[in-house]
Amino acid sequence: MHHRAVIFDLGGVILGSPLHAIAHYEREFEIPAGFINGVVVETGRDGAWARLERGELGMEAFFDAFEGDCAAAGQKLSARFLMERIGEAAAPRPQMLAAVERLRTHGYRAAALTNNWAGADERQNALKPLFDAFVESSVIGLRKPDPRIYLHTCAAIDVAPDEAVFLDDIGSNLKAARALGMATIKVEDPDAALRELETILELSLLEAPDPPRGF
């Protein structure tokens, strides 16, 4: 298969993992492990989290709505504090930034595809020049794993789905991408994910340890 593009999730791939931040929050406040992600999944597209990521809720409205979703599932928590923790975890990963730059140097197109929210961490804005396209769920009103957001991203970089490799840290997001024909890589350890990408593309991506200037 001839791949011409790589599509990157942000949180958990290019940036530190929100899943790790959520797990840490649950441990700190003695919330059952997996409770928060369970609420996100169980409330589905009508839940506060999904509406936030589609740009249908502002952050202040989200706090009350998500706390309500969690209370209905049997647990009180501070959504404001949770989101602060997620923001604190979103530090750029230097090896990923360097890999994006190297890919583009070698003629590959690179896109970011993120489920995010309006007013997300300013570090995301600083990343935009690194990519050929920067697709945000809160801007276009679609979120992963809706197949339309993957097709939108492919169109933005002028490739077919089977010409793209997609990196994400959430299995359901990867499953939807595979169904469209993309090659997929689940990111748990960033270096391991980049080695897998190197194998797919037959291109060295881990030789430059320093991130692009400005990060």
Summarize the entry for a quick read:
By secondary structure, the protein is of the alpha/beta class. The chain has eleven helices and five strands.
Description:
The chain has helices at residues 18-28, 35-43, 48-53, 59-72, 79-89, 94-105, 122-127, 137-140, 147-156, 171-179, 190-201, and strands spanning 5-8, 109-114, 133-136, 164-168, 183-186. It is globular and about 50 Å long. The protein has a five-stranded parallel beta sheet with strand order 3-2-1-4-5, with helices on both faces. It has 215 residues and is an alpha/beta fold. Strand 4, helix 10 and strand 5 form a beta-alpha-beta unit. Helix 1 (18-28) packs across helix 5. It folds into two domains: 5-16 and 92-201, 3-Layer(aba) Sandwich (Rossmann fold); 18-89, Orthogonal Bundle (DNA polymerase, domain 1), CATH 1.10.150. 41% of the residues are buried. Helices cover 48% and strands 11% of the residues.
Note the topology.
Blueprint lengths: L4 E4 L9 H11 L6 H9 L4 H6 L5 H14 L6 H11 L4 H12 L3 E6 L7 H6 L5 E4 H4 L6 H10 L7 E5 L2 H9 L3 E4 L3 H12 L14
Helix pairs in contact: 1-5
Largest sheet: 5 strands, parallel
**So what's the oligomer here?**
single chain
According to CATH, what is the class of the largest domain?
A: Alpha Beta
How large is the radius of gyration? Answer: 17 Å
Spatial strand order of the main sheet: 3-2-1-4-5
CATH level-3 fold name of the largest domain = Rossmann fold
Assign the structural class, choosing from mainly alpha, mainly beta, alpha/beta, alpha+beta, or little secondary structure: alpha/beta
- The CATH superfamily of the largest domain is known as HAD superfamily/HAD-like
How many structural domains does the protein architecture include? 2
Q: Average the pLDDT over all residues and give the rounded result.
A: 93
The proportion of residues in beta strands is 5-15%
Per DSSP E runs of 2 or more residues, the count of β-strands stands at 5
